[in-house]
Specification:
Strand content: 15-25%
Number of strands: 21
Number of helices: 17
Mean pLDDT: 88
Shape: globular
Structural class: alpha/beta
Distance between the termini: 68 Å
Bound molecules: adenosine-5'-triphosphate
Radius of gyration: 24 Å
Largest sheet: 7 strands, mixed
């Protein structure tokens, strides 16, 4: 099917990519409804829309992993029928997925190699990952098995893998959701360079400032339909929000902190790493009181994962007294026993750890909630469904009802459901990793608001995040984690980007600073003061 939009002017350079009238229907929803979009060579084009608007579906259609019901894709002005990712790669299309598509048991290099259609030897790929990783500021050890990586590290692998294909069209579906600000800056330099060399980039992000900095064109989707085009560099965050959700996100209501008793006491937690790529936890000491939010900042892969496992009960090697929950020694308790003490937990991986992909949302409630389990273990399915439907309503989750499989939800909607399930449990202690990963600006404001409401109601909240803006917004106090050690506590008012940034490299410790100064002096450089 052709439309006037799809016929290039004779002699003119045709658009690199054109979508014309793309429609994709799922049983419960029309994910894309007659979507048209044009990307020029060298253009960085944003696709903007709230959670569930249909962005990922559209990108998967370009990459050949989803087949459209109607519509036409044109590449360099010619109609194409891309049936799978191999064919997409032959056209020079590369994609960084929102949900990582890495094999857990293979190494980084093997994963990258698999995505490169094997024109290079594994040794060559290994060397290129090292050199490109250093060039892009995304160092990663090519020999590490993927299951030992943090989500931030997995995101780096996905990006390096896509960049190594020298793409002509690069699709990035929320590539920065768990990257640090420094890594994002470096990525943007790389992307701008690629675009200046003629690569077209399709960029999906809920971070509006990123879109304004990077993109010169933008297509806005709402409910599967295109609702507008704009140049993000001529917009503000507020006007982009209005285009996307019809409103600006509500401002957070921050009330002064009134803390109560200590709910989580981590008392000299030291743990040896469980595999060679892990991080030793070294004498960690902190507490979280009822009615406060404690944030832990840090570059992913500095012990956050190990700390989360030790706190949730997935790792029970700590001595009992090293972790006290509500005054009880909890280091050896399993996750269920810890839940009985009032500890609820949102893990960093939402598919797999936070939810079982093939199970319906109602059944996914059972992972952490037993409200619908009666005497003798009988399950009250009706109650379970009503409960799931409540969470769907309260948190504005777009899903085809309480029985929709977790994997059928858009990324942001699944995150809203998982966070909602744990907040709804009215925990005494809530531990959340990356609370607003992939959720749109409206939903992010809602989740942060709900976290603050929990804290105002006397819950102790521990938030681990790489997003400093988010931590500054909701935390009453902050620690920084680096190389398995925890910095001293900082009051919210004393936490500046610069200070926290320095501490993220471990520079809070006088000994460390002195050592660095000495090394620098020995190398003939100027000394730190
Ligand atoms: N495999 C599937 N089966 C059923 N429904 C699906 C499937 N994939 C997507 N959908 C539905 O299509 C709609 C669009 O989803 P999509 O993932 O494209 O949204 P999105 O704009 O990328 O959202 P987010 O910002 O949360 O990632 C959603 O309502 C989603 O539930």
């Amino acid at each position: 099917m052709n439309s006037p939009q799809s016929i290039p002017t004779p002699g003119a350079v045709p658009p690199r990519l054109q979508l014309v009238g793309i429609t994709k229907r799922y049983p419960a929803v029309v994910a894309n409804d007659g979507v048209s979009l044009t990307v020029q060579p060298g253009e960085v084009h944003a696709v903007l829309g709230e959670n569930g608007a249909g962005k990922s579906t559209l990108m998967k259609i370009i990459y050949g992993t989803v087949k459209p019901d109607e519509g036409q894709v044109l590449f360099d002005g010619k109609p194409v029928n891309i049936r799978n990712p191999q064919e997409a790669r032959q056209y020079g299309i590369a994609m960084v997925f929102q949900h990582f598509s890495l094999f857990d048991t293979l190494t980084v290099a093997e994963n990258v190699w698999l995505g490169l259609d094997k024109r290079m030897s594994l040794a060559e790929v290994t060397a290129r990952i090292e050199s490109k990783g250093a060039e892009y500021g995304m160092d990663i050890d090519p020999l590490r098995p993927v299951h030992t990586l943090s989500v931030g590290e997995m995101q780096r692998v996905e990006i390096i893998r896509a960049l190594l294909t020298d793409p002509r069209v690069l699709i990035l579906d929320e590539p920065t959701s768990v990257l640090t600000p420094q890594a994002v800056d470096k990525l943007f330099v790389v992307l701008k360079k690629l675009a200046s060399q003629g690569c077209s980039i399709l960029y999906i992000s809920h971070k509006l400032h990123e879109i304004r900095e990077l993109c010169t064109a933008c297509t806005v989707l709402r409910g599967g339909k295109v609702t507008g085009y704009c140049n993000p560099q001529e917009e503000t965050n507020a006007s982009l929000s209005r285009l996307m959700i019809g409103a600006e996100p509500p401002a957070l209501q921050y009330r002064e902190v009134k803390t109560g008793s200590v709910v989580l006491h981590v008392n000299g937690l030291s743990l040896k790493k469980q595999d060679q790529f892990g991080v030793d936890l070294i004498d960690m000491r902190f507490e979280v009181r009822a009615g406060e939010v404690l944030g832990i900042a840090g570059v992913s892969g500095n012990g956050q994962r190990e700390l989360l496992y030790a706190l949730s009960g997935e790792d029970t090697r700590a001595a009992a007294h090293m972790i006290e929950v509500a005054g009880k020694a909890a280091g050896r308790l399993n996750p269920r026993q810890r839940r009985q003490l009032g500890l609820h937990f949102v893990p960093e991986e939402r598919l797999g750890r936070g939810a079982v992909p093939t199970m319906g949302l109602a059944h996914n409630m059972l992972l952490t909630r037993d409200d619908a389990v009666g005497r003798g273990g009988w399950l009250n399915i009706g109650k379970l469904q009503v409960h799931a439907a409540d969470i769907i309503r309260r948190f504005g989750v777009k899903a085809g009802g309480p029985n929709a499989p977790a994997k059928s939800l858009s990324g942001g909607n699944l995150q809203k459901f998982i966070v909602g399930r744990e907040i709804d449990a009215k925990p005494k202690l809530l531990i959340v990793s990356q609370p607003t990963w992939g959720v749109d600006v409206g939903a992010a404001a809602q989740i942060r608001g709900e976290i603050l409401a929990l804290r105002d109601a006397g819950c102790a909240v521990l938030v681990l995040s790489e997003e400093l803006d988010e931590l500054f917004e909701i935390s009453d106090r902050l620690h920084v984690v680096a190389k398995g050690q925890l910095s001293p506590s900082l009051q919210r008012a004393d936490a500046t980007l610069q200070l926290v940034g320095e501490w993220m490299s471990g520079l809070w410790n006088a000994d460390v600073q002195q050592h660095l100064a000495q090394v620098e002096a020995e190398n003939g450089g100027t000394q730190h003061v």
